[in-house]
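Schema walk-through. Below, the input block comes first and the output block second. Nothing else is stored per chain. Lengths vary across the set, and this one has 313 residues.
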Amino acid sequence: MAMSTASRIAPGILWSKIQQQTRHALACGALQPIDTHYEFIEEGGMRFLVRVLANLARKEISDQHQAAQRQAGKDINPFLPYDENLFVANLSDTHLCLLNKFNVVDHHILIVTRAFEDQDTWLTLADFAALALCMGEIDGLAFYNAGRLAGASQRHKHLQLVPAPLCPDGSPLPLAQVIDRLGDGLPRANYTENQPSPQPFQNPVFSFRHGILGWPGDRPLTAEGLMDTYRTLLKSLGADLASDSPAFPYNLLVTRQWMMVVCRRQEHYQSIPVNSLGFAGSLLVKNADQLALLKHLGPMTILKNVACCSQVS
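--- output ---
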């Protein structure tokens, strides 16, 4: 049942609602942050942030419980019903905002469809309307893991947003530093001018299939602009937008300055999992052994092996 538009969050208060609900969820134990320590590894012109989990016990217990339920033929969906203690706000008739229960970054939020939609389906104008609302009030990195092979842990469609700064030392997002070096060389979407967008940029530093487009000037993000740019990027990577669902998994990354899409082929490489944050320059490992493996292989090697390596001509 669609909700009344009167129950939508009022403009300008989303950040304060997130902070308020975070305090409540921590106090009642609904929010269970995962402790990490971190270091930086430089490779290929990027300064990768690598977090090492200090205690994954609670998250592993939850994952094992869900796996056991699935084996018993039960499809567990933490968003239907969602935990009221993690609820932040109604964003629209179709979307709501939740806190990420097992967060590594403070104030990590989820933008979730109210009714079940599959994570393997295309993003819609309604998805981007909810995203534009959140990004209009919170400067950060939004991302979408399109399917299990792209790092999605839940089938129920949800975008995610982590406020800036992503790096604990306050430094800029690693990927943003690479893109910022392009300056005026970054092609920019023309969605406000009723003209086709230029061919997306492919950074030669990245030996995997991807596309990047910047936003035109300092204009605010709109649902229509996000949608058009998303479709332009996917089409440039060989997606058939007329099909019912994507033919390949992908990661979507969005900031107030640019959008990037990466084609995926597997969820991890040699036990190291990668979701959208990996391509933003932030990787997560479980222990010292995985950290040593990551250093031996190199972050770029891991990204190359989980992504599709050949570009579409």
